[in-house]
Amino acid sequence: MAVGYLLRGKRLAYVGTAVTVLIWTLLFVLGVEAGSNPQVIHGISDLGLEALWLSLAGIAGTLLLSWALWQWIKRGKEGDR
Fold it and tell me: What is the rounded CA–CA span in Å between residue 69 and residue 62?
């Protein structure tokens, strides 16, 4: 916060690029760290199945709530007529 306050009047065009590079570096290091962990490698099938179920549940929930919202909106528009 202090650095941001001190640099508030400066033009910092390079900050977005620096943040992107740092994020990619952190993701790379995380991937290397996870790939070198034998417990993660041995449990990758379990992690994949859990990720699949969570993804499917998220999609199903989104579809269900989107449908319910659409029905609610349609009902409100029909009542305005």
Answer: 10
